[in-house]
Amino acid sequence: MRKNYLFTSESVSEGHPDKMADQISDAVLDAYLTIDPDSKVACETIVTHEGVTVAGEVHSNAELNDSIDGIVRAVVSDIGYTHTAYGYDSEEIFVINSLHQQSHEIRKRVLEGGAGDQGLMFGYACNETKELMPLAIWLSHRIMERQAAMRKSRDIPWLLPDAKSQVTIIYEDDVPVGIDTIVVSTQHMPYIIGHQGHGSGMMPMGHYSGAYGISDILIEENVIESIIKPTLPTDLKTDNIKYLINPSGRFEIGGPAADTGLTGRKIIVDTYGGSCPHGGGAFSGKDPSKVDRSAAYMARYIAKNIVASGAAKKCLVQLAYAIGKAEPISFMLDFQGTGIVPEDEIAKQITGMLDLTPRGIIEKLNLKRPIYRNTACYGHFGRELPDFTWERTDLAKEISF
Q1: Neighbour tally for 397: CB within 10 Å
Q2: Is residue 168 within 8 Å of 181, Cβ to Cβ?
């Protein structure tokens, strides 16, 4: 039954502690894959107020123990934590490397072509955006990307790396028609050397002289006008949006100085913002023999191509695997009442077109490349970047109905 409702999704910035951990884990994975594309990696990271610990299992011909320290510091620096005034300094933190050898039992089964673990994975697509993503999560990511761009360009020079966004979409008859609420919490400096401009409260670029505090009014105006509004779709109702900017108050202490970060703790941010089920497996730090990652990418590829073909307006895909076994133990399509043909007909076509074993997925999507750090922020899905092969719609033309 079609409904009128509100739906909310969130995103977090690259300076959020959990996202820092994801990026470090994927940077370590990329380093191994650069030297040995057959590397088996399961890298977990914990980011604390004093430093970073990297742990997990690896089997690779690449010897990187002496390089882990540099990889970690480079990621932290690239994110923007480069001074103790920001609460974290890439040059001052400790780095502990606790990576060790992968279990030979797991490795044997993976080498034979089996799945690296059991589990269930979901993929999803819908026609709410041109990228075929749910609107709330797509827009939440774009706001965070804009926050990072304005920070790094210094167009808003008092922004710091940690931030979160949340978008609530208005649905009428199950179709997005407007935006109800946007929440942005963004870390900021307490003051900056400079001047306040010409009465607008906006921070101009150029030469700064003097020092002044960053006011709540200045933060709100800059975030709404320079970060949020440029990202808003023009085809939605936006006149009555409720903006909540740093609703808890000042946000001067952020990142690892405020919270501990862990790899894999933002699995809903990484996927579809709660618009569909999640199998529970995280992505970052895992090589593609882990179906938690590779099969989730394949599920997205299938769902997106089905929607792109016009066979349905929405498509949910589930795959499931048993450890050591190559073929999926289940494959399901659900068009959520929007299909113009039965799911079973399309499912038969898909299984005839695609090899859904781990080896087949890796080959189809070319997943043994060092492409993963770039997936770790702003969503694994809905960004049509050259390396994101699972976002291609080349299969759509092959689907008949």
Answers
A1: 10
A2: yes
Nearest-angstrom CA–CA distance, 99 and 15 = 24
Contact present, 385 and 391 (Cβ < 8 Å) = yes
Note the pLDDT of residue 101.
Answer: 86
- Do 364 and 355 contact (CB within 8 A), yes or no? yes
C-alpha to C-alpha distance for 182 and 373, rounded to whole angstroms: 28
Side-chain half-sphere exposure of 72, counting CA atoms within 13 A:
27
Mind listing the pLDDT tens digit for each residue in 104-122?
A: 666 566 666 778 778 999 9
- C-alpha–C-alpha distance, residues 73 and 114, integer Å: 35
Helix (H) or strand (E) holding 344: helix 343-353
> Among all chains, which residue has been given the structure tokens 């990187």?
64
Reading the block at residue 134, the tokens are: 């749910």
* Whole-number pLDDT of residue 237: 86
Position 45, amino acid: T
Q: How many CA atoms lie within 13 A of 342 on its CB side?
A: 3
CB neighbourhood size of 128 (10 A): 22
Q: Would you state the pLDDT for residue 105?
A: 60
Q: What is the DSSP string of 20-78?
A: HHHHHHHHHHHHHHHH-TT-EEEEEEEE-SSEEEEEEEEE-S---TTTHHHHHHHHHHH
